[in-house]
Design goal:
Length: about 350
């Protein structure tokens, strides 16, 4: 059975299953979901806890199997946690997980919790993951998107008795907060808790948030590309500044931007050759959020426009590697800003 992370609290109140699988790439939400299950397990008598961390290709799964299938030494019931940081259990692990899934429903003394990172498509289609989902409850922990982050912050403030002003003023406060903590949900929660310590319950102002909240955003090159293709000029500029400040390599940022330009060009050629848009995107391995962005802008881009961007990307490649180019900044990050803004401005019009 699959449930969303937001449904877990209500699910736990109805009673626990014998097997849970948590997977996702947001540490704070993954930790909170696991803590909710641990608390519920203790309340239902699973007072002994055994933890196994699967590290390396030669991990001994026999100890895990022994824990799951043995009786608790110090309590009537036990909680067994299996942590697989790589998301790849290996051949022996895959077999062991299927055995654990098969025995879980009839094992009244043991509650098993499997903790995984974000899984790729192949892992989600694997036999071992299918067995875990079929025998127990699978909880996918999705990250909070930038558009959803202001509401997430508001909900967390409400939990500690605080709120922002109603209407547009409050939305500006939440957006300011979100911009400062984007990509770093753990830091966002810490900043929310800080506001709870600094100010009493009730309404908090933009000035109070500005004084308390640090700029703790973390950016990655793939989110930058989403901002560029989405036509979000200020966000793209802020993310480039953040990537530079965090010490990201300019060559990696250029590669990500150039690869999206090349993908746009390939997909456009496929469209012009008569391919349907969904097929053109699938053939170029464009999925998820980026697929929706490509669908929005691609029909409006011309081959001439894309040819200019390809040339610009080639030019910036030289600048990043130390070459000087006429009519372009000599600083690699300024050149990346110029490239990103040219693409962003065109995408914003559609």
């Amino acid at each position: 059975m699959q449930i969303a992370a937001a449904q877990l609290a209500a699910h736990v109140q109805r009673g626990l299953q014998k097997l849970y699988t948590l997977h996702g790439d947001e540490p704070l939400l993954l930790q909170e979901a696991a803590d909710a299950l641990r608390t519920a397990a203790r309340q239902q008598g699973h007072s002994e806890r055994r933890v196994h961390s699967v590290l390396g290709a030669h991990f001994d799964w026999s100890a895990v199997l022994a824990s799951v299938n043995s009786l608790s030494l110090f309590a009537d019931k036990q909680l067994v946690e299996i942590r697989i940081p790589s998301g790849k259990p290996g051949k022996d692990g895959a077999t062991a997980l299927q055995q654990i899934a098969a025995s879980a429903p009839g094992n009244d003394s043991t509650l098993t919790l499997v903790l995984l990172p974000k899984l790729d498509g192949a892992s989600q289609k694997s036999a071992w993951f299918a067995a875990l989902e079929s025998a127990g409850v699978s909880v996918k922990v999705d990250p909070v998107t930038l558009s959803a982050l202001p509401n997430w912050i508001a909900q967390r403030l409400q939990q500690q008795g605080q709120r922002v002003a109603a209407g547009e003023a409050g939305q500006r406060t939440l957006q300011f907060f979100a911009d400062r903590v984007e990509g770093n949900l753990l830091a966002a929660q810490q900043e929310i808790q800080k506001l709870g310590l600094l100010h009493p319950v009730g309404e908090i102002s933009l000035e109070q948030v500005q004084a308390a909240v640090l700029n703790v955003a973390r950016y990655d090159v793939f989110k930058l590309c989403e901002a560029v293709l989405g036509g979000h000029s200020l966000r793209a500029q802020r993310m480039l500044d953040g990537l530079q400040a965090e010490g990201e390599a300019a060559v990696l940022v250029h590669w990500a931007l150039a690869e999206d330009i090349r993908s746009l060009n390939r997909a456009k050629r496929a469209l012009d050759a008569g391919r349907a848009l969904p097929l053109a995107l699938r053939e170029n391995r464009i999925w998820g959020v980026k697929e929706k962005l490509f669908e929005r802008v691609l029909p409006h881009l011309s081959q001439t426009q894309l040819a200019h961007w390809l040339q610009d990307a080639h030019t910036v490649d030289g600048i990043v590697k130390g070459l000087k180019q006429a009519d372009w900044p000599t600083d690699p990050w300024q050149a990346l800003q110029q490239l990103a803004q040219r693409v962003t401005q065109a995408c914003r019009r559609h």
